[in-house]
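User: I'm curious whether this sequence folds into something compact or stays loose and floppy. Could you predict its structure so I can see for myself?
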Amino acid sequence: MLVDAVPFANENHFYHTARRIAEQNPDYWWADQFENTANSNAHFLTTGPEIFQQTDGQLDCFVSVAGTGGTLGGISKYLKQKDPNTKIVSVDPDGSGILNFLMNGKHQATAGSSFTEGIGIMRLVNNFKQGKIDYGLNLPDSDIVTVANYVRKQDALVLGSSSALNVTAALYCAVQTGPLNGGKPQKIVTIACDAGERSVSKLYNEAFLASKNIQSDAQSIEHLIERYKTEINRLQHVEFNL
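Assistant: Here's the prediction. I'll summarize afterward.
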């Protein structure tokens, strides 16, 4: 069932529509993926342990976007229990309110907008509440495009926009804290949470990108890395630990 894109306060928002359908029809079940903590618990019980095991417990940083908040909430909670020194980075795109919330306690959108979909919660939900977060990071769509195309050409991995934002944020953290800036090698993990078929019409569509004043070849990956070396103000230290 397709519904119009409307603000959360509107009763026709997809969240309220799904809830209403389930309440009115006993044959339907509503997952309530934002508030139902079975979401974050699944990642606490499975994904978090898998990451810890496969990195031999030697993990410097975990980076993730937040859609429902379940992935970030559950994994960060587990990793922090195992090793409080593991740094957790929440990343969101332009126009999202997560970074402002982490810094100021208010879900106020940052400047600009983003073509990424399903990322950037504008309210505090139960699954996000499980998170243990040390840093907030906001990145523009132009950087996501650069990294997505580099990964597609070099590694034959066609990332969705959320995955591309995750990888871009992981790259940023690696540049900021690793040998390129005088630090030690970092072991950084992120999630490939969506594939490229959902993003063909936007992330990999030159005409669409042009309408947003973005050129896919406007900056090389080398140029992006050089820029990230100096953009220390992007990575904001926060203390989100409910």
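Summary: The beta strands are 61-64, 87-93, 132-139, 188-189, 236-241. The chain has nine helices and five strands.
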